[in-house]
Specification:
Keywords: Oxidoreductase. By secondary structure, this protein is an alpha/beta fold. The chain has helices at residues 15-26, 66-75, 109-127, 140-144, 148-155, 159-174, 183-192, 196-200, 202-205, 216-225, 280-287, 305-308, 344-351, 355-370, 403-407, 433-454, and strands at residues 2-11, 31-34, 46-49, 52-55, 60-61, 79-81, 87-91, 97-100, 208-210, 230-231, 238-242, 245-249, 253-262, 273-275, 289-291, 294-301, 311-316, 324-327, 336-343, 379-384, 397-399, 418-420.
């Protein structure tokens, strides 16, 4: 076994771990990054499927994501706007596809008024919520003890309005049923994006993409760190820790360091043996956090046929298997690509089908939005992060009812020389690459400040 000494060892070569390593190295610290996978990027992955480039993981950049935008500029990476010209499509409870423009989809007058009213109420509550400390809201425990679904139903008797407001947090973001997480967790999700209104505005939240794919960010960071710094295929098996530092072990390496950053999703923390064991309350915390479930569907066609039909590619409905879909055509390509999402209980159901049956059901849902041409893509692929050994879900961990007020603040606290962080623990940019980069920078600054105080 190879023995190494470093100032800081980082577990995980996603955006958080690599940004922390890069900032620490820039400040003169010796670092090493241990990654279980055979690639860097974590939940960012650009890959070719049957010759077609897909962003299998995260991909979008919104105007409020200033940390990500600054990093893209720093790394010399270019962006381009998502195609959005034309009409959007909403499928009604009866299955009728309706075309529309603007933010509010075509429903009855009462439903449209209810949606507008609920967005206003949520925006007010979000404005009172600090994304860095939602548990400090004056009604935090009350909001954390009621599910988002129950709260919505207490606020409105319009089931279509409830279903659609629920969609923007449950299906589209946390990828869990809205009865499975609290109102406070929903407010954190919206507060991390600046407002609930931002979440319902696809032109804002899904504004731009990176030329060549968003995985370019971790790829360039890893390149700048150097080959000897980032070690792939090194799943960490144990961390022995004490007041003077820690020893981190993979199957091939043993690294002694003053500090450790565990930069993986919280659902993977217990894949590591901690010696001594972590405090009991932190072990309990891990048991109250979980990732959601989503299938990201990619379908590429010889031409973007929906554009000639006057459609933007933006489509959604809580009544469809694919609850939302967008034009996802890559920069400079003549082919057209749609991306859609199947989440939570709907994903449960189609995962019980054979692969061919699941594909057929998903394409039929896309055809409801775009017409029969959607049934015959040239390339089709399903991103299934729940099947990834070193992810096991998407997009971010969230707490069960009551968990955010019970354990939220605790998850940010170091344990001896060990700090934990990922986009799952972000304030602004929660569950996004922007948040991952923010957390990486914060952890690096904490270590530098601590070492500075010791000198």
């Amino acid at each position: 076994m190879e023995h190494i000494e470093r100032d800081v060892v980082i577990v995980g070569a996603g955006a958080t771990g690599l940004n922390a390593a890069y900032r620490l190295q820039q400040a003169g610290k010796s670092v090493i990054v241990l990654e279980a996978r055979d690639r860097v990027g974590g939940r960012l992955w650009t890959n070719a499927i049957d010759g077609q480039m897909y962003e299998i993981g995260g991909q979008w950049v919104s105007p409020d994501q200033t940390e990500l935008i600054g990093t893209l500029d720093e790394l010399g990476l270019e962006t381009y706007s998502r195609f959005r010209e034309g009409e959007s499509v909403y499928v009604t409870p009866s299955g009728e596809a309706k075309r529309f423009t603007g933010d509010i989809f075509p429903a009855g007058e009462h439903t449209e008024a209810e949606i507008t009213r609920l967005i206003g109420i949520l925006d007010e509550l979000v404005a009172q919520t600090d994304p860095a400390a939602p548990w400090e809201h004056p009604r935090a425990k009350e909001f954390d003890h009621i599910s988002f679904r129950a709260w919505l139903e207490s606020e409105s008797d319009d089931s279509e309005a409830v279903e659609n407001i629920s969609l923007f947090i449950a299906d589209a973001m946390l990828t869990k049923p809205s009865h499975a997480f609290s109102l406070l967790q929903a407010l954190l999700m919206a507060a991390s994006a600046g407002s609930f209104s931002h979440l319902v505005d696809a032109d804002f939240i899904l504004d731009k993409r990176v030329v060549g794919g968003l995985q370019s960010v971790p790829l360039v960071l890893a390149e700048r760190l150097g080959r000897d710094v980032v070690r792939l295929e090194q799943p960490v098996r144990s961390i022995s820790w004490g007041s003077l530092g820690a020893v981190v072990r993979s199957d091939e390496l043993e690294v002694a360091a003053d500090h450790v950053i565990v930069a993986v999703p919280p659902n993977l923390y217990d894949r590591i043996d901690y010696l001594p064991a972590l405090p009991r309350l932190r072990q309990q915390q891990f048991q109250h956090q979980s990732l959601g479930l989503v299938i990201k569907v990619h379908a590429t066609y010889e031409t973007p046929f929906w554009r000639s039909a006057g459609l933007s590619g933006t489509a959604f409905s809580p009544y469809q298997l694919v609850h939302e879909a967008y034009d996802n055509t890559n920069h400079g390509e003549n082919r057209g690509t749609l991306v859609g999402f199947v989440s939570d209980e709907k994903a449960d159901a189609v995962f019980r089908l054979s692969a061919s049956e699941r594909k057929q059901r998903i394409l039929e849902s896309l055809a409801t939005y775009y017409g029969p041409e959607a049934l015959t893509p040239a390339v089709y692929y399903e991103s299934d992060w729940a099947a990834e050994e070193w992810t096991r879900g998407a997009y971010a961990t969230s707490f069960d009812l009551g968990g955010l007020t019970r354990y939220g603040a605790m998850q940010l606290e170091p344990i001896g020389p060990i700090r934990f962080g990922s986009s799952d623990l972000a304030a602004e940019g929660y569950q996004h690459v922007d948040g991952a980069l923010r957390v990486g920078k914060r952890l690096a600054h904490e270590i530098l400040a601590l070492d500075g105080a010791d000198q």
